[in-house]
Design brief:
14 helices; 7-stranded mixed β-sheet; binds pyridoxal-5'-phosphate
Length: 393
Amino acid sequence: MRCILPVMENLDQMASEGSDRLYLDWNATAPTRTCAKDVWIDCLEDGWANANSLHQEGKRASARLDAARQTLAETTNTQPGEWVFTSGATESIHAALYGAANARGGKRRIVTSQGEHACTRAVLADLEEQGYEIHEVGLSRSGQWDPFEVLLACDPALTVCATLIWANNETGAVSPVEEIAVQLRKRRIPLHLDAVQVPGRIPMDLGALESGMVSISGHKFGAPKGIGALHVRRGTAWAPWMLGGEQERSRRAGTSNVAGAVAMAAAFAEAARVDFSAIASRRDRFESALQSAVPGILVLGQGTPRLPNTSALSVEGVESSPLLLRLDDRGIAVSSGSACTSGRTDPSPVLLAMGLTPAQAHATIRVSIGETTTDADLDRLVAVLAQEIPALR
Ligand code: PLP
């Protein structure tokens, strides 16, 4: 199909150059799943009306939105009415934190970790300016926060909520969420989890987890961008944040992105069926092949709980930016730290919090794979790294 936007004409050229490209940056955005694309197109053709309109067309759209909510609920063992669709995780996290703050008049402390995504840190910085006390717990050398430290900081008389990253986007470190969720629920302190990197990588059973709020983002597991969700468990102290309409049962104003929601639900259900251990085996095989081929590679969090698809590699004596450019020239897409902070020259605060030196942090690249990545793909990456790293040293 021809692009109709004039500015997009050179994309046709880029597409023809891209046939043997190797995409290893799934934590930035996962490739679109066919099931998501199919239901998205179908919905644009047949469910395009405003889901809040009372006519037949509106009802058709609204039925699709209900089906999407039902799918999220069934996939996670939760209730459909507990899911609020948003434009993505940045919005979900804003809604969770401002919503918790608005609902907890009088309490002023928010407990968090040094491993949070930039959007969480930005909301907390704003709340700090408004007079909230932000208590940050540190990270272990392998990137996890310590639930015991979180609990110590969570005085029920003072604490609005705790907000914690479940699985880190830069390192893949998975922190122990189960016990802290139980303990905070007992103390009636809402726990918000940034679960953006969880779907499609590790199981996500919210029926068995006593979290209060959970944020997800469609494009991290194969849905289009511009759609995400916030799970707010019934009984959680939370007030709507985006105001001005009755959509999402008055919990999130703005015309619903129905096609995005159904595409996200389809991708979410499929991502839950991925063989996580097969991905972990491929990743482990890649890491040992690389460490045998090239000296001076530190694999962050190796041997500790981490996402099966993520390798954060600190490459001694090499800056990540020129290495990424050389890989890109050779047809391979990986990233350094999180995509949201690439383009900045400051070392990642998450890597520094894990005790890396600024030089080690600057030398860190992230390889993140998915279920369509093969051993042959990763062998190709090892071979290219084995040429490019010595050339840059
Ligand atoms: N949280 C984590 C852990 C992420 O990886 C990201 C995206 O990189 C976000 C939040 C923000 O998600 P989005 O850009 O989809 O709003």
